[in-house]
Amino acid sequence: MEIxxxxxxxxxxxxxxxxxxxxxxxxxxSKNIIVKGKxxxxxxxxxxxxxxxxxxxxERFLKDITPERFFPTSSSxxxxxxxxxxxxxxxxxxxxxxxxxxxxxxxxGYHANTGILPAVSDAQTLILADKLVHASLIDGIRLSSAHxxxxxxxxxxxxxxxxxxxxxxxxxxxxxxxxxxxxxxxxANLNALVKLKYQYDNVLLxxxxxxxxxxxxxxxxxxxxxxxxxxxxxxxxxxxxxxIASVGAFVVCKRIIKAYLVNRMRTFIFTTALPPLNIAWTLxxxxxxKEWQSQREHLKLISKELKAAxxxxxxxxxxxxxxxxxxxxxxxxxxLQAEALQQHGFYALPxxxxxxxxxxxxxxxxLMAALSADEINQLIQSIQ
Length: 384
Ligand code: PMP
Known about the structure:
The chain is of the alpha/beta class. The chain contains 14 helices and 14 strands. It has a seven-stranded mixed sheet, with helices on both faces. Strand 2 and strand 3 (38-42) form a beta hairpin. The termini are far apart. 44% of the residues are buried.
């Protein structure tokens, strides 16, 4: 059949280019990962606070779970019969923590980012999106009928120019960015974006805090908390699958925006809500978020050490966070570096185009607070 032939040819082409992806068979053992019998320190996890392996935490949570209180499914969309009260509890907790009118929970960051923009925009909307925003945001933009321009990564001069040139031609402009970028570990200039927004009356800000929620800010609320601009962001999105060691996502926003999304957002309406069990675990974690400041400080410290060492070894590294790319450049050299690190017991993965721009292949270290300073020093010594 034609379609099968085409698939086979494409897979062959990917294989020849060294870009064929397969699912790796993995075992997890605390902060280690075991691949084909080899135990390696996991340097590619999004469990930034190290909560997923915290036994005391899990025991405390499970103590209250009896068969009567074990809800492994919501069995429905929240608009039908799936709206267990634990959802409202988590949303109220988030809104209170952020000091916003409302919060709304989604099944994943992917659902959030592919659903919000198509719901709130139309052909009279212009979306300005950073060149490096996550695939889920790009897909959300594609699903929308808005016009979109991608601006050069963090190029505030270009964003200012684009807003100035276009604000009269559109009903509204939505600027879309991540706060801490997933591949560079660098940060958006949130304060400059906020300042720009207030120069116009039809500019809104959409900020994806997937890699900052739980990790940054005095209460772990994210980079906008650190930059003191939570209330200047119209759509502040966070996810639970990373530092929170759970699953799902949320937006904190005005009451009218939540009500609108509940009526218009297809990836919210047409899907079975997450199991109440997961929501209960997320709530349990979120309620304790402010207490993990020493983990956040430790993560900052080991991240600084690794970045400084990479720069000393001659690598470019734009990071200001716990996501630390070691930019090697060529594909082959990056793969060799990753293999060498794995042989030394460090599970670090290469990231290549098209995930990152051509010529910037890299090892992406994604650190967890559960890693010790000693382990980071050993890693540094293994880096060529
Ligand atoms: N936004 C960003 C910036 C991400 O990196 C990711 C996942 N890697 C997502 C959204 C999607 O979140 P989720 O995994 O919850 O679907």
